[in-house]
Amino acid sequence: MPAEATARVRPGRVSLMRTAIGLMGEQGYEGTSTRDIARAAGVSVAALYYHFPSKLDLLKQFVQEAHDVVLARLKREIDGSGDDPRAQLDAAVSTIIGSNLHNEWAQGAAQVAWRELDRLDPKDQRAVSEKRDALIALIREVIERGSSQGVFATNGSAEVAEAILRLCMSTIDTNRQSGHTLDDTIALYQRFAVALADTPMPHAPSRRARSRAR
To answer: Which of 53, 85, 88, 119 could pair covalently with 146 via S-S, beta carbons 3.0-4.6 A apart?
Structure first.
């Protein structure tokens, strides 16, 4: 058998990142050393540094890429859910929660992305904040479509969109203790999201109330 056929395949960048984030999800950022990552991945520390100059750089790349993945998925699922704003909002909630909770690795990775953000430098934190703002903007567009069609009653789409994103992200910490299945959690938070979207803000009359007054 040729020597190249028996050579062990070294894990690539994505595999190394998954190993590292899995360890950080279990042990925390501070509790995970580069040696731990290299040992778990079956490579040398030098091989790890070939892909990532530092542990912090690995964290930065993961957090940014994770947000990009969820953002692309959110847009795709909203666009594919039809014209009904209620169905679009359900799809948004399902996508965000499902992305964070669909398996054990994803749950740990979501905790890393959420709780370790402050370790990044201000420039990188702003870049991640912009990606989260883009997530909120997609949800806001759904709510505004629903409000304009009389499906939702809120007059505060920006506030409600941010609240829905934060609510969905809260499942990262609460779902393990709740005992709910993923489907049950999604269905529950879909109802929460609709309730928020259909509740007028106190500072101004809702679109529905204004239309009734005409």
So the answer is: 85
Phi/psi of residue 25, nearest 5 degrees: -65, -30
Digit-coded pLDDT (tens) for 181-196:
999 999 999 999 999 9
Distance from C-alpha of 18 to C-alpha of 11, rounded to nearest angstrom: 10
Residue 107: both structure tokens together: 């749950």
Rounded CA separation 107/102 (Å): 7
Tokens representing residue 95 in the block: 């996508």
Structural domains of the chain sorted by starting position, each given as residue range(s) with its CATH number in brackets: 9-53 (1.10.10.60), 59-213 (1.10.357.10)
Q: What is the pTM of this model?
A: 0.86
Instruction: State CA 83 to chain mean position distance.
Output: 24
Q: What is the pLDDT of residues 95-138, one digit of tens each?
A: 999 999 999 999 999 999 988 999 999 999 999 999 999 999 99
Q: Is 51 within 8 Å of 114 (Cβ atoms)?
A: no
Q: How far is CA 124 from the centre of its chain?
A: 17
